[in-house]
Amino acid sequence: MNIVICSVGHEIEISIAEVLKKLGHIIYEFRKEIKDQDYDLEYLQDLVNFIDEKSIDMAWSIDYLPIISRVCSLKHKLYISWIIRESWNTLYSNTIKNSINYIFIGEETIAEKFYKNNPGHIFYLSPGAAIKEVITIPETVGLWFLDVKYPSYYMKEESREYLKGYIRGMVEAQKRIHGYHFLPKLLSKKLRNEIEGVLSEAERGKDYTKKAVSDMIDDFLCDTITKDERDEVVKVIEEQGTYKINKGISQINVNITSRKWKTGIPYDILQIIGSGGFLITNYQHGMEEYFRIGDEIVVYEDNKDLIDKINYYMLHEEERREIASKGKKKVNEFYALEHRIADMFYLLS
Known about the structure:
Blueprint: E1 2-6, H1 12-22, E2 26-30, H2 41-54, E3 58-62, H3 66-75, E4 78-83, E5 101-105, H4 108-115, E6 122-124, E7 137-143, E8 153-155, H5 161-175, H6 189-198, E9 199-201, H7 213-240, E10 244-246, E11 250-255, H8 267-274, E12 279-282, E13 298-300, H9 303-315, H10 317-334, H11 337-348
Parallel strand pairs: 1-2, 1-3, 3-4, 4-5, 5-6, 7-10, 7-11, 11-12, 12-13
Antiparallel strand pairs: 8-9
């Protein structure tokens, strides 16, 4: 089969291509900047020409891109998209109903939510990781969220001070609790209506369904909490003045999963551990179903606990290496990229 990977610049694309080649497929890469993920006519025409020129049977992408679905519908080709991070706003595009789509989503509640829009074509599928041998950078702390953007929503300047204070209070309360998302219980109908009136969002495509107010507010609150948590972690590590902050596999790797990711294990955790990296992460609900905490993965409770554990594991190399080794073995056994791609083709058959 001739398969084109429509590149969005994600590191996993190379590994996916390698796995598909091993399965006997001919792989092409289509690398072109997308100026508009919904209606980029230049991208659309160039991809149409590429599909014709290379006799493409199937297109792949990380994240769901409506423009690729439009092209594949036009050319009657299968489109495989895999959402492995919290980037599912494009699922509100009506193009997800196209019959050529096969959309795999790494967050279970999101997959369940959108399944009804295209039954048999939208699936929950845990992310997978390429198992690699990587040399870690000594005396560094790797932060896996330095280049993350927080799109979605922002509050208008004219928002009432009372409302700003109430929202800040909710955010600060939720920041202290990991593994249980209680914010929706604090939102009365009156409060939801008031928050809706002061939120703005980036312009959406004209064929998008309206996002429920509760979802819009929850995304805003979760993004606010996540940004706060990540900024605070950067600050407390910098204040230590002991370690260099690095992006990539380091002696100690710190992940802070987005609060929007409420179930399952996101890609970054699997990739760090699958590369042999030692990981410290915030707790997520159900994490113990995937890894033995303290044995294959390390979880921190608050910023003080994080610094204490960074300092401890910097000094206890043998213990750190043993945890990293056990974690990598678990990823290799259950979450290797080869397994996930095999699952995809099974669901396609």
